[in-house]
Amino acid sequence: MCGIIGIVGRTAVAPRLVESLRRLEYRGYDSAGVAAIVDGKLERRRAVGKLRALDEHLAAEPLGGTVGIGHVRWATHGAPTEANAHPHASGRVMAVHNGIIENYAELKAELIAKGRTFESQTDTEVAVQLIDQYLSEGQAPLAAFQSALARFQGAYALAVLIEGEDRLVLGARRGSPLVVGYGDGEMFIGSDALAVGPFTNRVAYLDEGDVVAIDDTSARILDAAGHDAIRPVRVIPASAALVEKGNYRHFMEKEIHEQPDSCQHTLAAYVDPVALKASPPADVDFKALNRIQIVACGTASYAGLIGKYLIERIAGLPVDVEVSSEFRYREAALSPGTLAVAVSQSGETADTLAALRFCKAQGLVTAAIVNAHQSTMAREADVLWPTHAGPEIGVASTKAFTAQVSVMAALAVAAAAQRGRIDAAQEAHLVHVLLEAPRLISESLQVEDTIREIAHELGRARDVLYLGRGAMYPLALEGALKLKEISYIHAEGYAAGELKHGPIALIEEDTPVIVIAPSDSLFEKTASNMAEVIARGARVIMITDAEGQRHAPPGARVVTAPACDPLIAPLVFAGAIQLLAYYTAVQKGADVDQPRNLAKSVTVE
Ligand code: M6R
Questions:
Q1: Cβ-count burial of 488 within 10 angstroms (0-12 exposed, 13-18 middle, 19+ buried)?
Q2: Which residues pair with 154 in a beta bridge?
Q3: Which of 176, 345, 373 to mutate for ligand 1's pocket (most ligand atoms within 8 Å of CB)?
Q4: Does the C-beta of 344 come closer than 6 Å to ligand 1?
Q5: What is each CA distance from 240 to 191, 198, 315, in whole angstroms?
Q6: Whose CA is nearest to atom 14 of ligand 1?
Q7: Looking at the DSSP assignment, which residues form a beta bridge with residue 172?
Q8: Residue 297 CA, closest ligand 1 atom number
């Protein structure tokens, strides 16, 4: 949502804050700001828009000091204006915030009644003013901070500077992540390990309700009850600290091409290539389960839907999938013997976390398929099923999606074997199929010239339809989401068989219809649906394999993917839809890695 950083350092703080914010920009880019303690006084610089606007502001008006805080914003309360940009200031306090203080209106009214005036529409300014209010009433800095935190309802990660405390940054987390970075004679707090990655690889993850005070050499951590607490310091892998685009134009392009590797790394944790057995890293007794309930948002929910198709077909185990934002509030009836599975790249998505907690409170065993292994979901779920996609920076999810699908495919095989739905020879065959996926994904990405040409045409479209059957239906939904979010073209995904029940009315002369149709048992059915749209003037773009290509209708543009087993078809066919969205957005000149109105990690409802 938003990204925050705090530094008690030994060298000029402003460039370091900006360096860190560059790694956090995936969390929000409506505005950015930094503050520092300069000669005992608080100073800040803020700018609307992407980080480069702040860079320019800092070049024109440099900011000194070695202790500071910084923020990139994804606007919730108040438009993206400079007045609403963080850090917010009041009296002796400046602070940056990720999350939403839900009772801000009530607190604001109380502060106005005390004679305070506000310069922004944000909930954060209310938080800042409340801390300052307690300071002005004579409380010491940490006590004033804790008094204010005790009044907040909602979610927050905060970093706070206090005038008169030259070598101190205060932080706190509830509902939004915060890490502490341990440097050499300097200390850091930040939204994630990436944020402190340029300065240290020693990181502690704060727990819910923790408060922290960092100075030059130490972090004092207090738990939710206000008792001194110790959080283990971990050495984070280099991959978490390294986020560079290399020779690629965009992170999204790089991440699409990383998929053979990320899929291989993920599968390596879920299958034994020697014994040819599925061996998930955390044991779940699939025989004892009656049902799986998957909760997730956006792309992760489509990975869950693919999981439903695979797990039900191969393992015969019922799977329900629901978007977390609905699931969390509808008082779902959950039966014993259900395993609740949260799927999330970030492990911090507010709705999915709430859905996971709801299931846990109902007494279900919970599992989390997450890419951020130290995230809140990873830590709160009973079972951790990690994906190994590495840091995903592009706001449009690509490699995290295929890593989630890889886990689903491996779990389907594990569940089928445990439940006696397949014998050892069939399990060995399916594991062999899984192990072929990275190579086939790599082959599937060798279609860029064709895709560039098609993207040129797609870029002119007003509406685009995606069709698929079976596990290709969720992929059609994902294709439409990818195109919408980065190229801003209206797109919808449909189950191919549903078309004639309404959506076919949308087809006009030249409407592009992207049909994902591997030559599987459903191919002929999908081919009939293709004929139906062609008869009504649609321009069909068919993503298929060599066999399917032989049956392509006249006039259809064809993107050819390698032939593969249906178990891995969602992995092998994903690349084409991602590249189509990517090149269409590039061709339109859109900001691929930072599409308008979006943020990578949605930590508010
Ligand atoms: O971090 P999560 O996987 O929980 O995020 C879920 C969605 O917000 C995310 O997949 C979103 O839909 C992406 N922008 C899709 O590209």
A1: middle
A2: 101
A3: 345
A4: yes
A5: 13, 10, 35
A6: 396
A7: 158, 211
A8: 6
CA distance readout (Å), 248 to 255, 415, 586: 9, 39, 13
**What is the SS3 assignment for 237?**
coil
pTM, to two decimals = 0.77
Tokens 């069909």 belong to residue: 540
What residues are annotated to the active site? 2, 600
Ligand 1 contact, 352 CB (< 6 A): yes
For ligand 1, is residue 345 a contact (CB within 6 Å)?
yes
How many Å apart are CA 294 and CA 592, to the nearest integer? 29
What pLDDT shows up at residue 242? 60
> What superfamily does domain 3-247 belong to in CATH?
Aminohydrolase, N-terminal nucleophile (Ntn) domain (3.60.20.10)
Helix H or strand E encompassing 17: helix 13-24
pLDDT at 52: 92
User: What does the domain layout of the chain look like in residue ranges?
Assistant: 3-247, 256-439, 445-588
Residue 343 confidence (pLDDT): 98
The residue whose CA is least distant from atom 10 of ligand 1 is 299
In this structure, the residue with its CA closest to atom 16 of ligand 1 is 396
C-beta of residue 450 within 8 angstroms of C-beta of residue 559? yes
In this predicted structure, what is the pLDDT of residue 246? 67
Rounded to whole angstroms, the Cα distance separating 295 from 169 reads 37
Tokens linked to 71: 């923020």
Q: What is the pLDDT of residue 238?
A: 61
Neighbours of 410 (CB within 10 A): 26
Look at domain 445-588 and name its CATH class.
alpha beta
300 lines ligand 1 (CB under 6 A): yes
Please indicate whether residue 325, judged by its CB atom, sits closer than 6 Å to ligand 1. no
Return the SS3 of 452. helix
Q: From the first residue on, what is the mean pLDDT of each consecutive set of 10 residues in the chain (605 residues)?
A: 93 97 85 97 96 96 98 85 94 94 93 95 94 98 97 92 97 90 97 91 92 97 96 78 74 92 91 92 93 98 98 98 94 92 95 96 96 91 94 93 98 98 97 94 92 93 95 98 96 92 87 95 89 90 95 92 97 97 95 83 70
Ligand 1 atom nearest 397 alpha carbon: 16
Residue matched to tokens 């979610």: 155
Decide whether any atom of ligand 1 lies within 6 Å of the 485 Cβ. yes
Centroid of ligand 1 to alpha carbon of 192 (angstroms): 17
Does ligand 1 have an atom closer than 6 angstroms to the CB of 403?
no
Fold for 256-439, please state it. Answer: Rossmann fold (3.40.50)
Work out the angle at residue 401's Cα, subtended by the Cα atoms of residues 397 and 404, and round it to the nearest 5 degrees. 145
User: Ligand 1 center to residue 251 CA distance, Å?
Assistant: 16
Q: Do domains 256-439 and 445-588 have the same CATH topology?
A: yes
> Per the structure block, which two tokens stand in for 187?
């200390």
CA 359 vs CA 107, 376, 520, 553, 559: distances in Å: 32, 15, 36, 47, 42
